[in-house]
Specification:
Shape: elongated
CATH class: Mainly Alpha
Strand content: 15-25%
Largest sheet: 3 strands, antiparallel
CATH topology: Arc Repressor Mutant, subunit A
Radius of gyration: 15 Å
Number of strands: 3
Helix content: 55-70%
Number of helices: 5
Distance between the termini: 12 Å
Length: 103
């Protein structure tokens, strides 16, 4: 097997994905099958919002997640709130497939 720039990039992305909290975030977003906002992800994986935000930033930096800004209805008192929705990119599935082929 020859080590190429693509191979090195894929290994870097896989390393980012298998960090325990990031892997939980990936599993949560995959299971939801829809974009989620940080508070929602943090609640599901029982972690603090600031840590989830940090790890989502790393996933975005590796092109494994993307963010879109939006608004959502927030309860008690009911009002609209600006939120950042996060979802996985197709790169996540590509990296999982690539990894399964080399092991």
């Amino acid at each position: 097997m020859f080590v190429t720039e693509t191979w090195i990039s894929n290994v870097g992305k896989m390393r980012a994905m298998v960090q325990p909290m990031r892997f939980k975030i990936i599993q949560t977003l995959r299971a939801a099958g829809r974009p989620m906002y940080i508070e929602e992800i943090a609640e599901r994986i029982e972690e603090e919002r600031k840590y989830v935000a940090y790890h989502l930033g790393i996933l975005r930096g590796k092109s494994l997640a993307k963010m879109e800004r939006g608004r959502t209805l927030y309860p008690l008192p009911i009002h609209l709130r600006n939120v950042s929705y996060h979802e996985l990119t197709p790169e996540v599935d590509r990296i999982f497939q690539w990894f399964s082929q080399i092991i």
